[in-house]
Automatic annotation (TrEMBL):
Taxonomic classification: Bacteria, Pseudomonadati, Pseudomonadota, Gammaproteobacteria, Thiohalospirales
Subunit structure: Homodimer.
Organism: Thiohalospira halophila DSM 15071
Pfam families, per database record: Aminotran_1_2
Modified residues annotated as N6-(pyridoxal phosphate)lysine in this record: K218
Protein name: Histidinol-phosphate aminotransferase
Length: 362
């Protein structure tokens, strides 16, 4: 194939990046992506399929997804004074947020280790990204965060709550301190709210430069790609200017309307995942040689014996279970692996694979 001029025309900031990779899970128990492991309840499927069949897919969808937004307000208790922006997954909203404020010389600040897309999207937009190292046991270092905000005067501060990949909820007082100190926008990313049960959403009315981000992915609708941001109407009006038209397709809107009308069923599944999380945590704590951290999300972070993180990951995969290998990141994540909480059967398969791998390494 002939050579292209990509190297000449693609911005250096883009060429320096590595694409976000998703591992192939074919034939494996998939516990690497923080998905709800249970399918839709059987009693909902017929009604859902009827709702989809009734959609006139030859027509463009509602550009504002108004009926979905109304249901999101009702189900999640969005304050009346706040506006909503819907995205094709919360990742699209992250991209919108960064592009809205991106200018050369501006900065994005977030704790690290954290969600990889914060850095990737900021650097892709030509902004500087400043990662603030977490403290012992992945606690938010409040003093370091406030110092970074004072030094860099960031346009955006991202705080994942609970944090990914560590699973912990930062102290609310530290988040409040960041809200007070930040000269720009603070985004509290509550992707795992279904499992944490705590939220900054009610506080958007008190903090005009706070946006709370949510997704339906973790609660059982990962295939939909639907997220939303809640915040001050002035901020949301600016963000809406660069939202692509018709970004929430008809089938996603129909599915979301139906799911939100039956949200109790997904709350039951989330409760089951929280119960399984505690059982899985207790089981991991019993394994000698592992360090395990409590989690408010639907996954658990644990550390393999020193220098054996990659080998342990490979051993688990060879035994039919795919989890997430974070050991290559080094630093605070050296030898760390992350496992999504699955069904009881999937969790048992993971523990069996883990035990076999540990025996094989001894």
């Amino acid at each position: 194939m002939a050579e292209t001029r990509a190297a000449e025309w693609v911005r250096p900031a883009i060429r320096a990046l590595s694409a976000y990779r998703v591992a192939d899970a074919s034939g494996l128990v998939k516990l690497d992506a923080m998905e709800n492991p249970w399918p839709w309840p059987a009693e909902l499927r017929e009604g859902w399929q009827e709702a989809l069949a009734a959609e006139p897919v030859n027509r463009y969808p509602d550009p504002a997804a108004g009926e979905v937004a109304d249901r999101l307000r009702r189900v999640f208790g969005v304050p009346e004074a706040a506006d909503l922006l819907l995205g094709n997954g919360s990742d699209e909203i992250l991209q919108i947020l960064i592009h809205a404020v991106a200018e050369r010389g501006r900065t994005v600040v977030a704790p690290e280790p954290g969600f990889a897309m914060y850095r990737l999207l900021a650097e892709a937009a030509g902004m500087e990204f400043v990662g603030v190292p977490l403290g012992e046991d992945f606690r938010l270092d409040r003093e370091a965060l406030i110092a970074a905000i004072a030094e860099h005067e960031p346009a955006l501060v991202f705080l994942a709550w609970p944090n990914n990949p560590t699973g912990n909820l930062f102290e609310p007082e530290a988040v409040e301190a960041a809200l007070t100190a930040a000269p720009g926008l603070v985004v509290v990313d509550e992707a795992y709210h279904a499992f944490a049960r705590e939220s900054f959403l009610p506080r958007v009315v008190d903090h005009p430069d706070l946006i709370v981000l949510r997704t339906l992915s973790k609660a059982g609708l990962a295939g939909l790609r639907l997220g939303f941001a809640a915040g001050h109407p002035e901020w949301l009006a600016e963000l809406d200017k660069i939202r692509l038209p018709y970004n929430i397709n008809r089938l996603t809107q129909a599915t979301a309307r139906f799911a939100l009308d039956h949200w109790d069923a997904f709350e039951v599944q989330a409760a089951a995942i929280r119960d399984e999380r505690e059982r899985l945590y207790a089981a991991l704590v019993e394994r000698p040689g592992l360090a395990v951290w409590p989690s408010a999300a639907n996954f658990l972070l644990f550390r393999a014996p020193e220098g054996q993180g990659r080998a342990l990951f490979e051993g688990i995969r060879e035994r039919g279970v795919l989890i997430k290998d974070l050991s290559g990141a080094g630093g605070a994540l050296a030898d760390c692996l992350r496992v999504t909480v699955g069904t009881p059967k999937e969790n048992a398969a993971f523990l069996e694979a883990l035990d076999g791998s540990l025996r094989g390494m001894s």
